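Progress narrative, Year 2. Work on ABC-type transport auxiliary lipoprotein component domain-containing protein from Paracoccus tibetensis advanced from sequence curation to structure prediction during this period.
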Amino acid sequence: MTGTFIMHRLSRLPLTALIAALAVAGCSNPEKTARHLIDPPTAGIQVANRIGTAELKDVSLPEYASDQEVAFQTPDGAVRATPDNLWADNPSRAFTTTLARAISDVSGATVIGTPWPLAEPPQRVIEVRVEHALAQASGVYRLGGRYFVADERLTGGGTNHARSFDIRVPMAAQTPAATAAALSQAISILAQQIATLSGPGTTIATQSPAPIDSFSLDPIF
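Result:
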């Protein structure tokens, strides 16, 4: 059916029918848009609770990973995405909430995404800064960056941790669904590393000083 014939047929429709026909023609098929979940699998192991209660700050993601479209790397090294495959939730929010749940599940700790909702302040604050979060052209999903665990207790003497991580998960296929599955697996591995304050990266541990007793200070006047 030629464009001229279609326009001729549309010109013979009543105004309301014409508007409806144009609206239907302009709508995209929602079945062509796939939305993918970030859902870490159960680790199947249990580790000691070294975190206690902790507030997990919003996870910082690279711009390409924070977009709604599922990004991937092509053989030429470029990072690309299509509007046909989207994340089902805001990537930063989904990463934060699932990571908090995964740390809690594997260790028994109480880790909650910011803002902290309980009256009792958390013992620690966790911050994760992701530098790499990409399905690479090699068929491996890479999740890399640094995480920080700061002791928030007012008693002082707590240990603060800064550690890097570089997690690589082989992908079953180079598809958006495989990307979502590999990212979910990588988050599960990261949760275990944070829960145990471990991982293959470099650890920098600092000791927060105990508060000075105000009664031991020399009077100013």
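The helical segments are 3-11, 15-26, 63-66, 91-107, 176-195. Residues 176-195 form the longest helix (20 residues).
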